[in-house]
From TrEMBL, chain A:
Primary gene name: LOC107696980
Coiled coil, from the record: none
UniProt xrefs under InterPro entries: PIG-T
Family annotation (Pfam families): Gpi16
Any one Gene Ontology cellular component term annotated for this protein: GPI-anchor transamidase complex
GO biological process: attachment of GPI anchor to protein
Source organism, top-level taxon: Eukaryota
Organism: Sinocyclocheilus anshuiensis
Name under which the protein is recorded: GPI transamidase component PIG-T-like
TrEMBL record, chain B:
Pathways involved: Glycolipid biosynthesis; glycosylphosphatidylinositol-anchor biosynthesis
Keywords: Endoplasmic reticulum, Glycoprotein, GPI-anchor biosynthesis, Membrane, Transmembrane, Transmembrane helix
Stated family: Belongs to the PIGS family.
Cell compartment(s), UniProt: Endoplasmic reticulum membrane
Transmembrane segments: 30-48, 523-542
Gene Ontology cellular-component terms listed: GPI-anchor transamidase complex
Gene Ontology biological-process annotations: attachment of GPI anchor to protein; GPI anchor biosynthetic process
This protein's name: Fructose-bisphosphate aldolase C
Membrane topology: Multi-pass membrane protein
Domain of life the protein comes from: Eukaryota
Length: 581, 560
């Protein structure tokens, strides 16, 4: 039947065709998987699911309440809290930029949440508090631990990624929970937000026992308003669910350099999600295409400029039946030719990503310390500015006068510093700096701090483990080796279209450093009882002697004879001579 | 041999050494007594005051009054006699003059009424007297009036009016007799239009266990969702097979035309919000059985209880509010399992192909297999007939909201509720039972909270909780008073306030803070202070007592 007319059920049972309702085609869903063999021999798999909905959540007159592909729970959150943009990520493990290069969408270890509220919101803090509670319910995470003491309002580092050029950072809230542990219970609600659940399409690969048996796992939800088309005449809401995994297949398969979808996910693909308008797998074959063979072979190749690099990808379109072959099942298999694979990537020679940052705590003892942040610019001849953002909890009291920025052993004066000092138990330190990185250099930012004493109820469980300090964020426009693609097209692969590219010569990169683990002076927690006991004893002893003094009857004793007289008496008694008085 | 030193005590008798010793002992005794007195009078209260938990004052006596709450409900009933019902003598005896005026007006409008009662007639009667919420107007028309068909004794309109065919009055009857004759009829009308004993008992069923409740009204009250300040109504379209069916439903239009009028009508009871979603790849928890005789899949009634749980996992909780959710699911079976029919306990197919779960929502199975032939290329676009679906869901929604079926006595004719789906008097019925239920719930909450606070002495009661409790109590009292006065709208308003305040007080997190710091621990901590302090005091007191005894014994021996 070619006409594909929609059918309508009449009450008398006859069939009839009728025009579509207007709402039918207003939302669409795309899914995509990118597989990239990494230099270290690991496999990087990045899933992206995008739901676009041509609707405005922040409409005043009409509440959005009828959902199709967009998950209802998130939609309600958006409209209730007047959220303009929401980015939330849960990450287990640390992305090793030196070995793996840049990820498509970076995220810090633990949980990260940043939200732009609409500028009609009057009580931003109240909305933020409630929003974090609701989100912690939706994602089964401890986001309810986000409060004013770990929330900051960065002035420059986190600009909205979607439409609109909001600059008033009063409507921005940013918080991280570096201690958050991500596991299956976070993945299940995340999968539930997908229209096809985990029943069809690429999401069947998302089996938690495989995903969490990996070196790095990160899942995220990004919601933002975007342009509906190239002319940007109408606004649409984009929900992007991303999941990034790095599998260490080299060690888990006894040194054999081959991987397949089945090996990674213990599943093969049989169909695309029927609701998806596009469903594709990209395999990065840029590095040494002659050294390995990919099975099955696809004639489709695609080139994309991503993160300042031109990459070539083999494309598998799951919406076409021929992709699945005779077996009706797609299991991508990559095998290295001969044993060349063994020595291509020894894992020893590190990558030199253009921008890289790391951080550590120096110092000794439990009183003071020093935070070192080291930022590397590996570009051979270009200097570029980076924005460094640090959010330090109040119990590390930063001595901002000790802040030094040195590059190439020379003082490097930041051109912009935004510092908001902490208030004890109310807000953390926020330090934002715009630093110019000289070409091929290492810039070190140090600041000293003193550890505060906490009240005994403020210690976390297991306080001797230490206290986490969230990653610092380095955001930069890195000069690109190749011309970036600035024009917006609908059929661009999802992984290259997340961060809008404004100019051809540079691309946006955000690098997260390691979170810090700082030991605070930890008391003995039976202390309050000891203190009470000690005080009571002292009081009791004092009181006892005072009481005795007041109530006892005192008598003067007969002064006893001196020792020599007593001795003399003893002798006298033996001799029978009268005793001395 | 023994000399006293340190003498503060000056005796008027010249002190001998023995007297001095006595005086010194006396001084020691006084000191011990004084210290004991200071410890008891100042020390212990001070310690008690500084270590006690803050407990604001609660109106316990008023709360205990609430426990034995006597509800008295009164309905304003206006009985209007139309011309020809009463003899002139009887009319004269009417104490109120405005009744006559009313009568006159009715007389004017009655010619407009057609031979059978119609909506317009009802409306015109409604216009005559703007009856307030909760009241009932009964028009008594002559026995011979052709307004109502022969066999109809009472006609209940869409609003708060009823036409009552008067029983034959003897012209010799006094007014009293007339009224008492009418009494039974009016009572029937009122129990249909506002509340009956059964309704109220059912509304109180959570609080009062009574054997008198009929099974049906009990079932009604259990089916209806609990009273709450707001409800979320969620319509979900379950499409387990998006590969073969592409379903379209005009839920927005359907809600606008079918559900919204009812919700607008119910606005005084609660805030409603409606939303909808489409869920894919959702399967029922049970496998339907294929029945060869009808060549269809069937779900038997006893397997329905297993359907909901697996589905509910996908429905998603309502993130944005904590109000109870009413779920209405439209399930379109996949092509391999259609058609699917629901069978009741007597193995017959349910005509609506739907069922509901008390206080949760309803599920309707919508078969689409007849709408396309085998030649159709999947996915088949299907538009769902929303009128059919919404009819079922509307009926289920009425059940959930507690709009109960009334069983009028014979001879009663009820006007169909019209476009809003709810007549004014039906709303009143609901309001009556809701206010009673609210009052019952709020007073239960408050009394159990008071009991809890009374029992566990070291819960901190902050001022805001005390304030909530007392505002709940005052609202409850005014709600009861309003019910007594027959002001239904105010009663409901106050009962809602009471329930809100009582819940807020009951669930306040500050009540939990010191719950786990019991008295025995407190004493254990202070034992290092208490023991060394009290032991000398107690010992010296014992000593004083024993000395006094001894002295008395000595004195007695001396006197003997």
């Amino acid at each position: 039947l070619d006409s594909r007319l929609p059918l309508v059920d009449r009450s008398d049972g006859t069939k009839d065709s009728e025009s579509f309702t207007a709402a039918a085609a207003r939302d669409q869903f795309q899914e995509e998987l990118v597989i990239r063999p990494l230099h270290s021999g690991d496999i990087y798999a990045s899933f992206q699911f995008r739901t676009l909905w041509d609707i405005d959540f922040l409409q005043e007159r009409q509440k959005v309440s009828h959902y199709r592909l967009f998950p209802k729970s998130l939609g309600q959150v958006l409209s209730k809290f007047s959220v303009r943009e929401l980015h939330i990520s849960f990450t287990q493990g640390f992305w090793r930029t030196m070995q793996w290069g840049q990820p498509f969408i970076p995220s810090p270890p633990g949980a990260e949440l940043w939200v732009w509220f609409h500028d009609t919101v009057s009580d931003v803090d109240g909305n933020w508090k409630e929003l974090t509670n609701v989100l912690s319910g939706i994602f089964c995470a401890s986001l309810n631990f986000i409060d004013l003491t770990n929330t900051v309002q960065p002035s420059a580092s986190f600009k909205p990624l979607g439409l609109g050029n909001a600059t008033d950072h009063r409507f921005l809230r940013y918080a991280t929970l570096p201690r958050e542990i991500v596991c299956t219970e976070n993945l299940t609600p995340w999968k539930k937000l997908l229209p096809c659940g985990s029943k069809a399409g690429l999401s069947v690969l998302l089996k938690s026992e495989k995903l969490f048996h990996s070196s790095f796992h990160s899942q995220a939800v990004h919601i933002r308003p975007v342009c509906q088309d190239e002319q940007c005449t109408s606004k649409a809401w984009e929900l992007r669910q991303t999941l990034n995994v790095v599998f260490d297949l080299y060690t888990s398969s006894q040194g054999k350099k081959e991987w397949s979808l089945f090996k990674m996910f213990s599943r093969t693909l049989t169909e695309a999600c029927p609701l998806a308008t596009s469903s594709k797998i990209y395999v990065d074959i840029t590095d040494n295409p002659e050294l390995f063979e990919l099975n099955p072979v696809t004639p489709l190749l695609s080139q994309a400029v991503v993160l300042g690099d031109r990459r070539t990808y083999s494309v598998f379109d799951l919406t076409r039946a021929e992709t699945f072959g005779q077996l009706c099942s797609l299991n991508l298999l990559l095998r290295w030719k001969g044993d060349s694979g063994m020595n291509v990537f020894d894992g020893c020679d590190m990558l030199r990503p253009l921008l890289h940052a790391e951080r550590y705590v120096a110092g000794f003892g439990l009183q003071t310390g020093e935070i070192h942040t080291v930022i590397y610019n590996n570009h051979p001849y270009r200097a570029f500015p980076v924005l460094l953002m640090d959010s330090v909890p109040w119990y590390l009291q930063l001595y901002i006068h000790t802040l030094t920025v040195t590059s190439k052993s020379r003082d490097n004066k930041p051109s912009y510093i935004h510092y908001q000092p902490a208030k004890d138990r109310h807000r953390p330190h926020l330090l934002e700096m715009l630093i110019q990185l000289p070409p091929h250099s290492m810039t070190e930012v140090t600041v000293q701090f003193e550890r505060a004493l906490l009240k005994w109820t403020e210690y976390t469980p297991d306080p001797n483990h230490g206290f986490y300090v969230g990653s610092s964020v380095v955001s930069a426009l890195v000069p690109s080796m190749v011309a970036m693609n600035t024009n917006f097209t609908q059929d661009q692969p999802l992984f290259s279209s997340f961060v809008p590219v404004k100019e051809e010569s540079s691309y946006f990169v955000r690098v997260y450093t390691e979170p810090l683990l700082v030991n605070l002076p930890t008391p003995d927690f039976s202390m309050p009882y000891n203190v009470i006991c000690l005080t009571c004893t002292v009081v009791a002893v004092g009181y006892g002697s005072f009481y005795n003094l007041l109530t006892r009857t005192f008598q003067v004793d007969e002064p006893s004879l001196p020792l020599e007289k007593r001795l003399a008496n003893l002798i006298r008694r033996i001799r029978g001579v009268p005793l001395l008085a | 041999m023994i000399k006293c030193t340190n003498l503060f005590f000056i005796s008027h008798v010249s002190p001998g050494p023995c007297c001095l010793l006595q005086a010194e002992k006396q001084r020691g005794r006084y000191a011990a007594l004084a210290i004991a007195a200071v410890v008891i009078v100042v020390g212990i209260p001070l310690w008690w005051k500084t270590t006690e938990t803050y407990r604001a004052w609660l109106p316990f006596s008023e709360i205990s009054e609430l426990d034995s709450l006597q509800l008295q409900l009164s309905v304003d009933i206006e009985v209007v006699f139309s011309r020809g019902t009463l003899t002139p003598e009887q009319q004269k005896k009417f104490p109120l003059s405005h009744v006559n005026e009313k009568e006159h007006q009715v007389d004017v409008s009655i010619p407009e009424l057609l031979t059978s009662p119609s909506t317009e007639a009802d409306l015109s009667l409604h216009m005559l007297s703007e009856s307030s919420c909760g009241s009932v107007v009964v028009y008594v028309i002559p026995e011979t009036a052709a307004l109502l068909p022969e066999d109809v004794k009472v006609y209940v309109g869409q609003r708060r009016t009823a036409l009552l065919r008067s029983p034959p009055f003897k012209s010799s009857w006094s007014l009293k007799e007339v009224l008492s004759n009418l009494d039974v009829k009016v009572e029937q009308v009122v129990s249909t239009m506002s509340f009956s004993h059964q309704d109220i008992v059912a509304a109180l069923s959570n609080r009062v266990r009574m054997a008198k409740v009929t099974k049906e009204s009990m079932a009604d009250s259990m089916r209806a969702i609990k009273s709450s300040p707001g409800y979320e109504i969620t319509f979900s379209l379950l499409n387990p097979d998006p590969r073969s069916h592409s379903l379209h439903w005009d839920i927005e239009g359907a809600v606008q035309s079918c559900i919204q009028p009812l919700l607008n009508k119910l606005a005084p009871i609660a805030n409603f919000s409606v939303d909808s979603q489409i869920l894919y790849y959702v399967v029922l928890g049970v496998n339907p059985r294929f029945d060869n005789s009808v060549s269809a899949y069937t779900l038997s009634a006893d397997s329905l209880s297993h359907v909901i749980n697996p589905v509910e996992a996908r429905l998603g909780s309502n993130a944005a509010s904590s109000n109870p959710v009413l779920n209405f699911l439209l399930y379109v079976p996949d092509s391999h399992h259609s058609p699917l029919f629901i069978r009741d306990h007597s193995k017959r197919e349910v005509p609506s192909n739907a069922f509901h779960s008390p206080r949760w929502g309803g599920i309707m199975v919508y078969n689409v297999n007849e709408m396309y032939g085998p030649e159709a290329e999947p996915p088949v676009d299907i538009n769902i007939n929303m009128a059919k679906v919404m009819g079922v869901f509307l009926a289920q929604l009425r059940l959930m909201l507690g709009v109960q079926h009334t069983h009028p006595p014979t001879g009663f004719v009820l006007q169909s509720p019209g476009s809003a789906g709810l007549a004014d008097w039906e709303l009143d019925r609901l309001l009556w039972s809701r206010s009673v239920e609210n009052i019952a719930t709020a007073s239960t909450t408050i009394t159990s909270l008071a009991q809890l606070l009374d029992q566990i002495g070291n819960i901190v009661i902050n001022d805001n909780i005390a304030q909530q409790v007392s505002s709940a109590v005052t609202s409850l009292q005014s709600a009861v008073a309003e019910l007594e006065a027959g002001n239904l709208a105010f009663a409901l308003q106050y009962s809602r306030e009471a329930i809100l305040a009582s819940e807020r007080a009951f669930f306040d997190p500050s009540l939990l803070h010191l719950l786990y710091f019991p008295d025995d621990q407190k004493f254990a901590i202070y034992i290092p202070l208490f023991l060394p302090m009290c032991v000398p005091i107690v010992l010296s007191l014992l000593k004083i007592v024993s000395e006094a005894k001894k002295r008395r014994a000595d004195k007695q021996a001396k006197s003997d």
